[in-house]
Amino acid sequence: MIISRFFDRYALRVLAFSVFGLLFVMRPTTLFPTLIILSGGFLLCLSAQFRSRFYKLICNQEYRLITWPFLWWFFSALILALVHGFNSTFHLPENEIRFFLALTVMCFACKSDTLNYLYRGLLVGAVAALMWSQFDPLIYEIGRAHGTTNNPIHFGVISALAAALCITIAMVDTDLSPKYRSILIVGAIFFVISSISSRTRTSFFVLFCILLLLFISDKDLYSRLASYLIMISLVVLLVAVVKSPKIQEHLRFSELSEAVEGFQKTDFEKLSGDRANMWHAAFLIFKHHPLIGVGPSGFEDGFRGLIKNGDVKSTYVHNQPHNDLLFSAATGGLLKLTAYIALMLGPLIFFCKKQKQKSEKKTQIPAILGMQVVLIFILTGLTNSNFDLQIYSTLYSVLICLLAMLTSLRNCNDTDAFEPSKLSTPAAPSC
Q1: Dist CA 394 CA 189 (whole Å)
Q2: Quick one: which of 13, 155, 202, 317 is 20 to 30 A from 49 by CA?
Q3: What does the mean pLDDT of the chain come to?
């Protein structure tokens, strides 16, 4: 099929570049990744060969830690939408369906230069993000930069994620020239500046993932120098935050210090950024509806009911509790909660296994990047409901599938396409 061959040649290259390269350049931010996974959905309907690839993918043991959690996440949301739709309006799980469609990415041919397109996209995104970090406060007079994302939290978190990936690539990919690796470090600095301009405290969770890079063994000279640079930068940042009230106010840390006046007088609502009450409400909703929750759109009504009964404080009512784990538990009970845990742990275990299987550091790069992505989404999901939003659902699903494909390239220097109909381990149709 001509269309299928066209997508085999270009789809993953365009996806790898656009996932960060166009995210900070244009709106909608995830336009190209969405178009590509939608195209995969159409090919799934129209092409018997593509359906055969998809079936082999689902039945392949190597990829079960990714394919099955993705399917579980989608079908659990669909079941909950149908069950709760009998009593209210049916809500199509439009964010969860992206995980199903993203699996079609793993049915396209993966070229050996695909990873380079991801690198180039990160560098283009770094320049665009830096421009937004300056335009929003200085020209548009917006207190917290948000760029194309229209939300400072999204802008800050995704910029921090991209910064972590740039630093990881610079430290791990020893095949790159020192000049290219230095450019990636500069790109990471651009992303850090962009994240700081958003004044998003959640983005500081990403520091924990960056610190893990300091413990990478078998470093070359450049990686050791980069490690020293990271440690020095973190120390300088810590001293600046502690010593400067202006920096504390800019990064909104002064709000946290004001909330703590001894443990007995701690204002946990203010300390958590007005989230503690929502988390308490989400836990109570899960306690009252442990099996299937209150449905995808029931959290707000459940929150109001708890306020009315005096079970939680009367605060601003949100439609989600700003926590992925609690949001899954409250809206979908154990069904959605276990699906969320599998969605995080499955890919994490997959990439850890891949990282251990590879003998050379250069072939471990996609696996290490994949672990970084999963860990960052777990950490940022502690104070945000990431998967309630299409931008995070699309970003996570396509990055995981793309990096999973890249870990299966037999040799990163091969120029032959990775044939998706011949997966790297024989299909075991036992599903």
Answers
A1: 25
A2: 13
A3: 85
